[in-house]
Fold this sequence. Notes:
By secondary structure, the chain is mainly alpha-helical. The protein contains five helices and no strands. Helix 2 packs antiparallel against helix 5 (81-96).
Amino acid sequence: MTVEASIDPLSYAASLLDAVGADREQVPAHIALDCMQAAELLELAGGHAEPVPLVDEDPRASIRAAMGALGLLDQETFATPYVLDAARAARRALRQLR
């Protein structure tokens, strides 16, 4: 079973962020931790991370895709503390990933 952004944005974003966090070749530990934290927060919000590949094998593209998926959420879901905190952690990881 695979997750799709249009069907389950929380799970899709959590899956991508978890994949970035697991990429020990391209992602430094402190950035991986931000991504894993974001994935965990999205799971607390109701998402379910599943193994997925990185978007184009690119951690930055994967974080951007995860953030795009969060943009598909309805206002009420996006405004929950878990989702907002996850979005902040993902944004912080994207800024640090050069």
